[in-house]
Amino acid sequence: MQHKVKLTVIDKKLYPELQAKYCSDPASGACPCYNVGDEFIFERYGDADDFWHMGIKTVSYTSASSGENIAGGSSFPHCSEAWDAISRYIYTGLQGGSIMRNWMNDERVMIACCSDGTRPVIFKIQRMDYKVVYIDGVKNREAARKIAQALRTEKAVSDVVYKDKFFEIFMDADVSDNRICGIIENLGGFTVLKID
To answer: What is the pLDDT of residue 67?
Structure first.
């Protein structure tokens, strides 16, 4: 089983009265690094190790214009105030651990915010469990679509992504390797080579 972590900005707060009283720029405004709805995907598989690079190139969706420096973009890591608050949960999720057991209603999820007291950003941190499956016999996109469609019929499978050399099977609950092999090999013409 492998794990990714999806980080989503779910809200931004602004306390102008605190900025006016305490900040050197009393009109600092809301956090410029994040936008509500921004999504980031952290991965540690193969050569990818997004955690150790403070999330550079992890942004998967943003409403920011292309010219803006967005946290998690190609050259701008996550804000240090945010990173200090969220990095422990991201690391735990990437290792497959319980992010916040007995506090959240799903131990794979945590709601956290950065430590800027005048303009905090609120994040949803979600562990995504998946298996990487290498299959012989996938000769074109139609074959990949057929396999993905078959795997999605399994109740615990939430998504299937084909990445040219392998499939990522995202799950809400574990699906055994034997079950995955059975679904794929029952289609005929395909052989599962390896499951990570």
So the answer is: 53
